[in-house]
Amino acid sequence: MAHALVIGNWKLNGSLHLVSTMLFDLQYALRGIQNCKVVIAPPVIYLGNVKQAICDSFIELGAQNVDIHASGAFTGEISSAMLKDIGVKYVIIGHSERRILHSETDQVIARKFYMLKKEGLIPVLCIGETEAEYQEGKTKEACARQIDVIMHVQGSEVFNDVVVAYEPIWAIGTGKSAHPEQVQEVHSFIRTYITQKNANKASLVTIQYGGSVTSKNAEALLAQPDIDGLLVGSACLNIESFIEIIRLAAKQKQVA
Ligand code: PGA
């Protein structure tokens, strides 16, 4: 992987004030940074403001969700074409908060994946095991199941040029990050699993880790060969932490 990929997922946080202050500081701090792609995924209402704020930089725009429909009578929803229209490039889908709190099934997520690919946007497909699955040693099984649902519907080649974010559910927002070596084992499994189904193409899949990433644990995670980047939640709202994580990602890829 030539570049690391760090995505900051603001979740339901932020304000116009945060957009202007954080993005100004971020762009200033990241001048000259190479080897790391940076994506900001704010709440949808701030996408336009973030787009404006990052227009002169290499930072790219991400969204946290998309609807399964292209258009029509679906009050409150946002389509993949609309996201593309305003300059979004990456879209997070399958996040466990949406799976659990909004009852999104694997089938709904597969549909979202399809809509994004059709529009030429990059899905950031979150997968990962529950705490119970982890305790039972079923992590790989859970990840394979979530990948299979999409492959069965759309074929293995749809995994070209996508981002898979491995996010153990028990590690999200808990301060309990997974151990780097365990994450490496799961990422290697995910890459091999996709490769076996789609020979020659799996190297195009970027595999991120997410779940209580901080500026303290980022370096050890990024040192693992199959951790291509990080999906950062709470630590991305702290400008110093987020800048440090991006610097570590860029440095790690320079020495790799
Ligand atoms: P966290 O969130 O970094 O706050 O654990 C990660 C995520 O939900 O993507």
TrEMBL record:
EC class of the enzyme, as a word: isomerase
Please tell me whether the keyword Repeat is annotated for this protein. no
Question: Per the database entry, which stretches of residues form a coiled coil?
Answer: none
Q: Please list the GO biological process terms of this entry.
A: gluconeogenesis; glyceraldehyde-3-phosphate biosynthetic process; glycerol catabolic process; glycolytic process
List, from the UniProt record, the residues annotated as the active site of this protein. 95 (electrophile), 167 (proton acceptor)
Q: Any signal peptide, and if so, which residues?
A: none
- Superkingdom field: Bacteria
One protein family per Pfam: TIM
The catalytic activity, as recorded, is: D-glyceraldehyde 3-phosphate = dihydroxyacetone phosphate
Single GO MF descriptor: triose-phosphate isomerase activity
Provide the protein's localization.
Cytoplasm
Which Gene Ontology cellular component terms are annotated? Answer: cytosol
Q: What is its EC number?
A: 5.3.1.1
**Does the entry feature the keyword Cytoplasm, yes or no?**
yes
Q: What is its main location?
A: cytoplasm
- Which pathway does this polypeptide act in? Carbohydrate biosynthesis; gluconeogenesis; Carbohydrate degradation; glycolysis; D-glyceraldehyde 3-phosphate from glycerone phosphate: step 1/1; Carbohydrate metabolism; erythritol degradation
Q: Where does substrate bind?
A: 9-11, 173, 212
Q: Which UniProt keywords apply?
A: Cytoplasm, Gluconeogenesis, Glycolysis, Isomerase
Q: What's this protein's family per the entry?
A: Belongs to the triosephosphate isomerase family.
Q: How does it assemble?
A: Homodimer.
PANTHER family per the record? Answer: TRIOSEPHOSPHATE ISOMERASE
In terms of HAMAP family, this protein maps to:
TIM_B
The protein's role, per its UniProt record: Involved in the gluconeogenesis. Catalyzes stereospecifically the conversion of dihydroxyacetone phosphate (DHAP) to D-glyceraldehyde-3-phosphate (G3P).
Q: By what name is this protein known?
A: Triosephosphate isomerase
Q: Which organism is it from?
A: Candidatus Erwinia haradaeae
**Gene that encodes it:** tpiA
